[in-house]
From TrEMBL, chain A:
It is a multi-pass membrane protein. GO terms for biological process: D-alanine transmembrane transport; L-alanine transport; L-isoleucine import across plasma membrane. Belongs to the binding-protein-dependent transport system permease family. LivHM subfamily. The keyword Transmembrane applies. The chain crosses the membrane at residues 12-35, 42-62, 68-88, 100-120, 140-167, 199-222, 234-262, 274-293. This is Branched-chain amino acid ABC transporter permease. GO terms for cellular component: plasma membrane. It comes from the Bacteria. The lineage of its organism: Bacteria, Pseudomonadati, Pseudomonadota, Alphaproteobacteria, Hyphomicrobiales. GO terms for molecular function: L-isoleucine transmembrane transporter activity; L-leucine transmembrane transporter activity; L-phenylalanine transmembrane transporter activity; L-valine transmembrane transporter activity. It is found in: Cell membrane. Its main location: membrane. Keywords: Amino-acid transport, Cell inner membrane, Cell membrane, Membrane, Transmembrane, Transmembrane helix, Transport. The keyword Cell membrane applies.
TrEMBL record, chain B:
Residues 11-268 form the ABC transporter domain. It comes from Tianweitania populi. This is ABC transporter domain-containing protein. One of its GO terms (biological process) is L-valine import across plasma membrane. It comes from the Bacteria. Residues 326-352 are annotated as: Disordered. Gene3D superfamilies: P-loop containing nucleotide triphosphate hydrolases.
From TrEMBL, chain C:
Its main location: membrane. It is a multi-pass membrane protein. Keywords: Cell membrane, Membrane, Transmembrane, Transmembrane helix. It is found in: Cell membrane. The chain crosses the membrane at residues 23-40, 56-78, 109-131, 137-155, 160-179, 185-204, 216-235, 278-300, 333-352, 364-396, 417-433. NCBIfam families: PRK11301.1 (NF008450). It comes from the Bacteria. This is Branched-chain amino acid ABC transporter permease. Residues 19-116 form the High-affinity branched-chain amino acid transport system permease LivHM N-terminal domain. One of its GO terms (cellular component) is plasma membrane. GO terms for molecular function: branched-chain amino acid transmembrane transporter activity.
């Protein structure tokens, strides 16, 4: 039982990171109906920025309080990823908006390839380890919970609350939802569609940056290729939860995290990804729009 | 037409019900379509006409009821039990769509060849023989082009045969869709608002096409129409729906003077029913009353990438599913269900 | 990179003022983007600790280049494009009428060139020098041409977005590798077997995903591709995992002669010619050319058969297909199966050519590249896809040869490092430049009077 709860906690931690990335996929999909394949690499850019900021901080100051360091890393990473995602949207997606469904998918894949190779070229192909930032581990009834996990949980919850507020209670969120429903009509009613879409990309990127920073903190290592696997997992999570649905993305992320950690704990670590993908396929076969997605009504 | 069993109606709908969740789109509907005749299905918006069509052609599975198609050979098919493509392939029911569904990137001729898929498939030995250049595929292919040419002439589209279907004018697209449906060799042709958006001249050409189909090929026709001029002129038999129930059934003349029909069309308790009766024939009046926006020109908009699983689609389906008791309430519910961002002005008319 | 889009307020002031403004923006933006990634580099020092190294000079150069590029683009390229567009006007619609000899016979000429290619290469750079050109360019490009033509059936014709096509390539490769090494069966028996096996997998994977549409289909096909790769990595008893399978037998010429120097039937001995590794490469070239042409032939044939028309109709409008009595399930499955079959053929060929395979060759990136070639070429267009494969894959290979760049960027410059970076950027640029691909129009499969290409404005890309 303790073992199970332990795995549950590990899974939820991992799932929170997936969930944060998945929101970026789902929001972009919701608003312009495209899979932003480069989003996983935006996450990687976030983790890398956090790494470099950490290195700068440790080079300049003898010691910085961990909380302050993490906060600075997170904020700078958010700014950087936002800048990247904003530029990508403007350069690679906006010219193709509304033309042809597969074209932006291909530019997104192209951007993903370009980004990860850009980082490989400029930062080198090797893994980049950093010394552990947070090391405390608490023992509660025989279950060990690390402070890292608590930080991840707290940050995720705070961000999701903030985010929920932003999407549901502000005029920005209203504009986003309006664009999601009918872009032409939203434009006619005075919503600045371009700006709203840009902001959506920035919001998605910021969450990915946070996920990237947390990822760096949790694993203590990052490499140029680290965008792909979490990216695909988060995308899987977004689809599993029902792409376009923000609560779905979080739910999907947590589920994928749980499946992975429980499968590795009880069955085989080699096949954890196979398990995650298989469950996605099975869920979609029975619920073709994911868990919380709105069923697509076939218009005849 | 074989004419062996003229007395059996070609299509018999018995106690058909269709519920979407708790909403009753069609409630206990029964009617028949006589063989070799043109039957019109009319009714105000949201009456469930398209839903009836979708049940007949297998796109929806009805909640209850029986739909019997009797072919000229006497063979009977229970349509509610068949998958959609078999209804066309075996039961020989073909249909058109309210929002024209052509293969816009294929030429007019190709559209008509796709419609002959099943026959050509057999002739090509299910691809294998055709791929090797064996068997009678060449002859079958030639015959299929001849058949296509026959319908191209009927639909007055010979000049446009090699043009992409998406390039045709609206009226021509409507005619092509009918020609394409006819290429499947149907015994019952279901037309969903064939005259919508046509100008008077095109409308006239359509009437001729439909009467020609009935006369020359003996195909029975079931059509949904808002244009009363078309309905009154070409149909032999009219069924009127309101809120998923049949309120009148008979010859065009009898339906026309049925007070229930007038009430349904003009709203309740109008003293001047008699006066407005004349106007019933006027399309614009009816459209005004129904709040129907004329269908946008061309089908190009129908399948963009933004369509997706967004509420737009759900809402359109919801448009057909008004609760019988209080349509106003359901409208309100729709609006409420929409997010606050949704404009009060709906971009498209409801699906009916 | 930033030199695209944003053409607002272009006509207001003088083009140069606007261009300078835009160039400054671009410089600022690129400085922001590259500050952390080019300006600073994280490297490990002697004690394996991460330290930062700064490259402000490189950063400044890149930023300056971006600014200059943006300036030139706004000041000269855009006006030129606008002028051309204005000059062309409505005349452009006519054109293409005159069917010159070259145009009419362009396919025959292309095929003739492809057949003569090794001869030309061998006669210009000699037997030994030809190896590289025939192998890296010829065989490599043709493999991708074949794969893209195979995927084209699924994506381009049937409109089903498949992100896991590489799985079928893997099935074909492993089918040949395993059966060839364990049972010593000949390539000519295993080639069809690999195709059939891949087709079988195509149907198997196709079945559950039939109900899915659009992006849901995309992610599930991606997942299947990954599952197959992960199984190949982890099912070590059979596949030897990441270590891969080596010693895959070479192809023989129908048993008449082969390409093993030690074998009694070695081509050199049979024909009494000097030993050379180029024979096998040239043989492989003709083999993949034949396989690719077979794919093209079958695709062209199928398009004129009801099943091919049904695929395209499915791409245009699935509901209309069903209303015409077409069994869309079977139609989709045949598309999956036939597309997969060609992937399987290509896979078997790949295994035979490499002599060694491991799961690394079948990563998602490969699926993405193949899909990109299909879309960049113009969905459904065989010639467009061939051009795209040549440009993208050939371009990537040619980068290896760009040794002269070392003179420009210094001895440490390795062009290979930039291959994938440039590949990714090229994908974006080409797509933005030509959203419908190189050849966007569609050839009709039947006509009454004359076959006129259907403009890409009418064709649809399918919903999944």
């Amino acid at each position: 039982m303790q073992y199970f709860i332990q795995q549950l906690i590990n899974g939820l931690t991992l799932g929170s990171i997936y969930g944060l990335i998945a929101i970026g996929y789902t929001m972009v999909y919701g608003i312009i109906g495209m899979i932003n394949f480069a989003h996983g690499d935006i996450f990687m850019i976030g983790a890398f920025t956090a790494l470099i900021v950490f290195l700068i901080l440790s080079a300049i100051f003898y010691s910085v309080p961990v909380v302050v360091a993490l906060l600075i890393m997170m904020v700078v990473a958010m700014i950087m990823t936002s800048l990247y995602n904003w530029t990508i949207e403007k350069v690679a997606y906006r010219p193709l908006r509304g033309s042809f469904r597969l074209a932006p998918l291909i530019t997104a894949i192209g951007m993903s390839i370009a980004l990860s190779n850009f980082v490989q070229v400029t930062q080198g192909p090797r893994n980049k380890p950093i010394p552990p930032l947070v090391t405390d581990v608490y023992n509660v009834y025989g279950i060990s919970i690390s402070l890292k996990q608590i930080v991840i949980a707290v940050v995720t919850i705070v961000l999701l609350t903030l985010f929920w507020y932003l999407v549901n209670k502000t005029s920005l969120g209203r504009a986003q939802r309006a664009c999601e429903q009918d872009r032409k009509m939203a434009a006619l009613l005075g919503v600045d569609v371009d700006r709203t879409i840009s902001i959506t990309f920035i919001m998605g990127a910021s969450l990915a940056a946070v996920a990237g920073t947390l990822f760096l903190m949790y694993y203590g290592v990052v490499a140029f290729s680290d965008g792909f696997v979490p990216g695909v997992k988060a995308f899987t999570a977004a689809v599993l939860g029902g792409i376009g649905s923000i609560p779905g993305a979080v739910l999907g992320g947590l589920l994928i995290g749980l499946i992975e950690s429980l499968w590795s704990a009880y069955f085989s670590i080699d096949y954890k990804d196979v398990a995650a993908f298989s469950i996605l396929a099975i869920v979609l076969i029975f619920l073709p729009s994911g868990l919380l997605g709105r069923p697509e009504v076939e218009k005849v | 037409m074989a004419g062996t069993n003229l007395q059996t109606p070609i299509l018999q709908v018995d106690h058909l019900s269709m519920k979407f969740g708790g909403l009753v789109a069609i409630g206990d509907l029964s009617f028949t379509a006589p063989r070799g005749e043109i039957t019109a299905l009319i009714g105000p918006n949201g009456a469930g006409k398209t839903t009836v069509f979708n049940c007949i052609t297998g796109f929806y599975k009805p909640t209850e009821g029986m739909i019997t198609m009797t072919r000229a050979s006497g063979e009977k098919f229970l349509l509610e039990r068949m998958p959609d493509f078999q209804i066309t392939a075996k039961a020989k029911v073909a249909r058109t769509f309210q929002n024209i569904r052509l293969f816009s990137g294929m030429t007019v001729l190709e559209n008509l060849l796709v419609a002959q898929h099943n026959a050509l498939m057999r002739a090509s030995g299910f691809t294998v023989l055709g791929l090797l250049g064996l068997g009678g595929y060449k002859d079958a292919s030639r015959a299929s082009i001849e058949k296509a040419v026959y319908w191209l002439e009927k639909a007055d589209l010979m000049d446009r045969a090699d043009d992409p279907a998406g390039d045709l004018s609206y009226g021509a697209q409507r005619r092509l869709e009918i020609a394409r449906a006819m290429c499947t060799g149907p015994e019952l042709l279901c037309l969903d608002e064939p005259a919508a958006g046509l100008n008077p001249k095109e409308s006239l050409a359509l009437n001729e096409l439909l009467l020609g189909i009935r006369r020359d090929s003996g195909t029975s026709i079931l059509l949904i129409e808002h244009d009363m001029a078309v309905v009154m002129e070409i149909s032999d038999h009219v069924v009127v729906l309101e809120y998923g129930r049949k309120i009148s059934d008979g010859s065009p003349a009898s339906v026309r003077s049925d007070p229930k029909v007038i009430a349904a069309y003009l709203g309740v308790d109008d003293e001047e029913v008699g006066d407005v009766l004349v106007e019933v024939g006027d399309t614009s009046v009816i459209e005004e009353l129904d709040g129907v926006a004329p269908v946008a020109q061309g089908p190009a908009e129908t399948s963009s990438m933004f369509e997706g699983p967004i509420a737009d689609t759900v809402e359109e389906a919801g448009g057909e599913t008004i609760v019988p008791a209080s349509p106003a309430a359901s409208k309100a519910a729709q609006v409420e269900a929409e997010t606050a961002a949704k404009s009060p002005v709906e971009p498209k008319g409801p699906a009916q | 990179m930033t030199a695209i889009s944003d053409n607002t307020a272009r006509s207001t002031s003088s083009p140069y003022g606007e261009a300078i403004r835009q160039a400054l923006y671009a410089a600022l933006l690129s400085a922001g983007l590259f500050f952390f990634f080019i300006g600073l580099e994280s490297t490990q020092d002697i004690s394996n600790r991460l330290i930062l190294r700064s490259h402000w000079g490189v950063l400044a150069t890149v930023v300056a280049l971006v600014a200059i590029g943006r300036f030139l683009f706004i000041a000269f390229v855009l006006p030129a494009v606008d002028r051309r567009r204005a000059n062309r006007g409505p005349i452009a619609v006519v054109a293409e009428k005159d069917q010159s000899f070259l145009r009419r016979h362009r396919f025959k000429i292309m095929i003739a060139l492809l057949v003569l290619y090794p001869v030309i290469i061998v006669s210009t750079v000699g037997m030994q020098g030809s190896l590289k050109w025939v192998n890296n360019f010829g065989v490599q490009v043709l493999i991708y041409v074949m794969l893209a033509w195979g995927l084209n059936i699924v994506v381009g014709l049937a409109g089903l977005l498949d992100l896991g096509y590489v799985a079928f390539y893997a099935v074909g490769a492993y089918a040949y590798a395993l059966l060839g090494t364990h049972f010593g069966l000949s390539f000519w028996i295993l080639l069809p077997a690999a195709g059939i096996m891949a087709a079988f997998w195509g149907v198997l994977l196709g079945f559950p995903v039939l109900r899915l549409r659009g992006d849901y289909l995309a992610i599930v096909t991606l997942a299947f591709g990954e599952i197959i790769r992960l199984v190949l990595i982890n099912w070590r008893d059979v596949t030897k995992g990441s270590a891969g399978i080596s010693g895959i037998p070479k192809i023989t010429f129908f048993g008449w002669f082969d390409f093993n120097v030690s074998s009694p039937n070695y081509i050199g001995k049979v024909f009494d010619i000097p030993t050379s590794g180029a024979y096998y490469t040239i043989f492989l070239y003709y083999l993949i050319l034949a396989l690719a042409l077979l794919t093209a032939f079958v695709t062209i044939r199928l398009r004129r058969l009801p099943v091919g028309r049904a695929w395209e109709a499915l791409r245009e409008d699935e509901i209309a297909c069903r209303s015409l009595g077409i069994n869309t399930t079977n139609t989709k499955l045949t598309a999956f199966a036939i597309g997969a079959m060609f992937g399987g053929f290509a896979g078997a060929f790949f295994a035979a050519r490499q002599g060694f395979i491991n799961p690394e060759s079948f990563v998602f990136l490969q699926s993405a590249i193949i899909l990109a070639i299909v879309v960049l070429g113009g969905m459904g267009s065989l010639s467009g896809i061939a051009i795209a494969a040549l440009v993208m894959i050939g371009g990537m290979e040619i980068l290896r040869e760009m040794q002269f760049l070392k003179l420009v960027f210094g001895q440490n410059f390795t062009p290979e490092l930039y291959r994938m970076l440039l590949f990714g950027i090229a994908m974006v640029v080409v797509m933005v430049w030509k959203p419908r691909g190189f050849v966007g129009s569609r050839e009709p499969t039947a006509y009454l009077k004359e076959a006129r290409a259907v403009s890409s404005t009418f064709t649809k890309e399918g919903h999944g």
